[in-house]
Design a protein that fits this description.
Low-confidence stretches: none
Strand order of the largest sheet: 7-6-5-8-9-11-10
Order of helices and strands: EHHHEHHEEHEHEHEEHHHEHEE
Strand content: 15-25%
Helix content: 25-40%
Distance between the termini: 78 Å
Radius of gyration: 21 Å
Shape: elongated
Structural class: alpha/beta
Mean pLDDT: 96
Number of strands: 11
Length: 287
């Protein structure tokens, strides 16, 4: 049976309505648009047109994936962060609104600098560093990660957002001392893995089964990667800044790690859910 795009979208929405009434309409539109190879805007323009049978079949397949728990972002192959389009695959975390808190802190610190050099460590999709490069036209940004697959995605996202000329992509391990060329930064920003061992078993299936554990698990206590304070301290200029995202209730432990490793003047930022989510600290002269 030949169906219009409107009918396909309506059928998907009907199946979703009982499970998630508030998002059923936008999700059904996104899945239908993906199946049709259109943007949502193009889909809305063409709602009354008849669609190929293959589009209806593909939309059903996407819906089954979604109902099984696969995140919408991975089905669509892209997601928005800070108003910028980001390619995402299951090799990288999906950019989340929580991460705007650490990005805001970094941008505030960089706004007063001339030609600042920034390292986005554990970069994943590159979303933080690319948002910085986009918002601070004088900034030079290095995106670093241990995953070669993630670095490939970050490189594509830099090109997609027109900042490749000022963005460098390198492989680096946050848990080890960096190579000598990773130095002289005005700011290091990181959204490192911070999920605890206990929390890993409690994650929603959409996260546990699809998002990369390498980018989630922060050790049994969730704090292993804050060793960045020690490992990358010498990569910062004197008076440089270190900026972290962290998990719910981890602010005190992260603060102590920063202070023990010679960072001070800590400032925190809450996310959209009013959870303390990020901190920025200045590298202090050691006594």
């Amino acid at each position: 049976m030949v169906k219009t795009y409107s009918r396909i979208c309506m059928e998907l929405r009907s199946r979703l309505a009982a499970l998630e009434p508030e998002t059923a309409l936008p999700v059904s539109r996104e899945l239908t648009a993906k199946a049709a190879g259109k943007t949502v805007e193009e889909l809305l323009r063409d709602l009354d047109l008849f669609a190929p049978d293959s589009t209806a079949q593909m939309a059903e397949e996407y819906l089954e994936e979604y109902l099984a728990g696969r995140p919408l972002a991975y089905i669509l192959g892209e997601w928005s962060f800070y108003g910028l389009p980001m390619k995402v695959t299951e090799d990288v975390l999906i950019p989340r609104d929580d991460t705007t808190a650490v990005t805001d802190l970094a941008l505030e610190a960089l706004s007063a600098m001339e030609k600042p050099r920034t390292l986005d460590l554990c970069t994943g999709s590159g979303c933080i560093g690319i948002a910085i490069a986009k918002r601070v036209p004088a900034a030079w940004v290095t995106l670093a990660d241990l995953s070669d697959a993630a670095l490939g995605i970050a490189r594509e996202n830099a090109a997609r957002n027109g900042v490749s000329r000022r963005v460098n992509v390198v492989r680096a391990d946050a848990l080890r001392k960096p190579p000598g060329f990773l130095s002289g930064f005005d700011l290091i920003v990181s959204n490192p893995p911070y999920i605890t061992g206990e929390e890993m078993g409690q994650l929603d299936v959409s996260v546990r089964e699809y998002e990369p554990h390498l980018a989630l698990f922060g050790g049994e206590g969730g704090l292993d990667f804050y060793a960045i304070c020690l490992n990358y301290r010498d990569s910062l200029k004197p008076d440089g800044y270190l900026c972290f995202e962290f998990g719910l209730g981890q602010e005190q432990a992260v603060s102590e790690i920063l202070q023990v490793n010679g960072f001070g003047e800590l400032r925190f930022r809450r996310d959209a859910s009013n959870i303390i989510r990020a901190v920025i600290a200045r590298k202090m002269e050691r006594n």
